[in-house]
Structures are given as C-alpha cells and as structure tokens.
Design brief:
Largest sheet: 7 strands, parallel
Number of strands: 7
Radius of gyration: 17 Å
CATH topology: Rossmann fold
CATH class: Alpha Beta
Shape: globular
CATH architecture: 3-Layer(aba) Sandwich
Strand order of the largest sheet: 3-2-1-4-5-6-7
Number of domains: 1
Helix content: 40-55%
Structural class: alpha/beta
Length: 253
C-alpha cells in the first residue's frame, strides 16, 4: 500500500468517535490524534478536564461528564450522542482505574469498584454505542486493556483480572459483531508515561521497571493513541479480535 493510500485508509473524516476517560493522559492524546484524523469527537469523563479540550479542538466536538459506574448514565449518554451527531461509528474504551493492594488484603469494595469501572463500564459502553454501528454495517470497538491482562504483577490482582476480562469480552464482540461489519480489538500497553505515571513510577522503581523492558523505556501516550487511530481506519479492516501489545517486548520473556 502506498503512503497516499495508507493516509486515505486512516482518514476518519465524517466518523463519530466516542472516547471514554478523555480527561486523562492517554485519553487526551486519543482526542488529539482522532481529531487530527478528521473525526468528530464525543468525549466522556467523570471530571470536567475534557470539556475545555473539546472546545479547543473545535466546535463540532462535544463533552459529557458522568460517572461510568452508573449504567443509566451510559445509556443516556449514548442516546444523546446519537441524537446530537446522528450516529456513532467508533468507540474507544479508555477509562480505567488502578486500585492496587496485595491479593490477601485487597478490600471487596476496591475489587467491586475496579470491576465496575474497568470491565462492566466498557461492556455497557459497547452495548449502548453498537446499535448505529450494526445498523450501518460498519464500526469499531477499541478497548484499552493492559500487559497486566496477560502476566502477573504484584498487587495488581483486581486490575489484572479486570483487564483480562476485557480480552474475553473483546473476543466475544469480535465473533458476534464481525459478520455485521463491526470489528473489536484491544490494545495492551506497558506503563504509559502520563503525568500521573511519572509520579507513580519515579526514582528507583521506575528505573528498575524500564530496565526490564527490552526497549528500556515506557510507552508514550501518543503511541497508544496512534495505534488506536490505525485500528479505527480501513487499513485495519481485517484485524478483528486481536490484542495489540505495546510493551517494548516486556511480555516476550
């Protein structure tokens, strides 16, 4: 495929993209990348950091603020977004939390909240956003999982379980919706160097973690965002039920 054809295949002009967790480091990078690809954005988060971002990216974009643990709020959002934009073409399930503790002492409340945000909400977003994709015979569901879905990491029991669940969910969506023109894929990054991660993985802890990655660094938010843009475009039309691991080779050991 020539460069010009590849550019056309990743041109998302006219597509409506829902991005959850848009106020965070990866989410804001997603918004910028999809906006630059010509897409119209429906941004969601539980805080208001994405509202100004939507305004700065252009008047055609819109932001919604609500708690993704509220199933009714997700359904209401999807209805409003369809009414406002006329359709939803692409869903990027990016929102997530990481409540870490040893497996022997993690609280039931933290387990339940992790599952509600990291696993139940992505399914509810997919279910709520899928109807117009299935009706149109074209759509993309891109879900941000984690390297923690496929390896064990200390104190990540709830996080790892929730992210592994996303892989299973995605496989089922790919199987059921693929014949109707809607693909579903996951992206599983290593530590992504957001502002929050720079604090959490500073000092000796971060140095040790980077040394265990063959590329000797963490991922950048833009690298995750550009991978999502690729999976959203026609260039990736035959990729369905895949898990794109972006970890510098950490999990090949």
């Amino acid at each position: 495929m020539t460069q010009s054809l590849f550019s056309q295949a990743t041109d998302l002009t006219g597509k409506v993209v829902v991005i959850t967790g848009a106020a965070g480091g990866i989410g804001s990078a997603m918004a910028e990348a999809f906006g630059q690809s010509g897409a119209t954005l429906a941004l969601t988060d539980r805080t208001d950091g994405h509202v100004e971002m939507a305004r700065q990216l252009g008047a055609q974009h819109r932001a919604w603020t609500f708690d993704a643990t509220n199933a009714g709020a997700i359904d209401d959002f999807a209805k409003e977004a369809r009414a406002h934009f006329g359709k939803i073409d692409i869903l990027v399930n990016n929102a997530g939390i990481g409540l870490l503790a040893p497996a022997a002492s993690l609280s039931v409340a933290d387990w339940d909240l992790t599952m509600a945000v990291n696993l139940r909400a992505p399914y509810l977003f997919a279910r709520a956003c899928a109807p117009t994709m299935l009706e149109a015979g074209w759509g993309r569901v891109i879900t941000i999982s984690s390297q923690a879905a496929i390896i064990g990491i200390d104190e990540h029991v709830a996080y790892s379980a929730s992210k592994a669940g996303l892989l299973g969910m995605t496989n089922c969506l790919a199987l059921e919706w693929g014949p109707r023109g809607v693909t579903a894929n996951c992206i599983s990054p290593t530590v992504v160097e957001t502002e929050l991660a720079k604090v959490g993985w500073s000092g000796e802890k971060g140095e040790k973690a980077r040394a265990e990655i063959p590329t000797r660094r963490f991922a950048q938010p833009s690298e995750i965002a550009l991978a999502a843009v690729f999976l959203a475009g026609d260039a990736a039309a035959m990729i369905n039920g895949a898990n794109l691991v972006i970890d510098g080779g950490f999990t090949i050991r």
